[in-house]
Amino acid sequence: MTHTVLHAGASAADQSRIAGSLAQRGLRTGDRFALSLPGSTTYLSVVLGALRAGFVPVPLDPRLTAYERDRILADISPAFLIDDQDELESLARGPAAELADLPLARPMHMTSGTTGRPKGVWSGILSPEHAAALVAEERELWGFTESDVNLVVSPMYHSAPLRFAMVTLLAGGSVAVMDHFDPGELVETIEAIRPTTMFCVPAHLQRLFTWLDESGRFLDASSFRLVAHAGAPCPDPIRLRTHATFGVDVVWEFYGSTEGQFTACPAAEWRAHPGTLGRARPGRVITADDIGLLWCEVPPHARFEYWNDPVKTARAWKGSAFTVGDLGRVEDGYVYLDSRREDLIITGGVNVYPAEVEAALAGATGLIDIAVFGRPDEQWGQRVCAAYVGDVSIEELRALAEERLAPPKRPKAYQRFDALPRTATGKVRRTELP
Known about the structure:
This protein is an alpha/beta fold.
């Protein structure tokens, strides 16, 4: 396989032409456009070139069904959608345009709400001071320099891998992008390009270690200075093997969301305080209120709102602190997570809300009631399951899920019940489901 490494200088030239192409299409400062493609070095340059011109890309999961994608597009009303690789590549052949030194906005990533309706996280156009602070925060925390080679192994529509790659280029470094994750190809890529940094989710690490055990191969991880994992709970055996494979002084984990970042935890701190997610990132203060809800006070450059949803935005903020509904505690400055957002399923680092899956399946002929829930899974952290009531075939439910839901959201197991267990107020007792 070939390994394409994008250097900062080459990307900067592409970014200028991309900005010119987007301006020719009629985009103005603050306008949005959507991307629905697998990650690539061109994808990265398009996002960064757009942001440095004041245009806001909206990265979408390319696996979304038409049903899912159309609902999102109707809400965010982008100027246009790019879902063809040739069209994406053509942007780099436009006229050169002047770029700001730094991104003037954050990408508007989509995330699921507790009602299951996707929502955009919108930060608007940043002032020069806030734009500089945003990049400086990432660069100072993770130490990105011109000597770094960042390896992208996660989908680029997620905020963390895209953020790591962008800040690496802004620091003068280089980036390589894997268009899909395969543990054997990962080992080959590491051997070929000798990356210095990588973000991954625990499922990637689990698959890597399984492949190494089954193949008998050895991974030379000595080129890495930083391996960060997040996005899902990490089983302790996987975490400890990650420490052993890459080095205690190399591995970090962090806790955050599409909305914003909460903590960062080097491996040595986790080993000294098992179970912690680390301390608040610089410039932030994390507290737990009377019911254990975690609130994160952030600097002005890290503020956001939910697109087209002032009510949800108001509920998320209390002064300069926001919450995503997670429950936890803070002990001697160290943050511990007790419970993710109500009913949230995290499978392979992907957030799945039962309400969204239930709504997509609700139209099945003969279906009376359905409840979606998560159960532990050794490979993915959790798997999506469904309990239902009614005279409907599992085959029909599976077909509807394939039509309307991206693969991570599709239930892996279905079980029929005469009635679902509910509280006196009608809420499903998900913990009583098998």
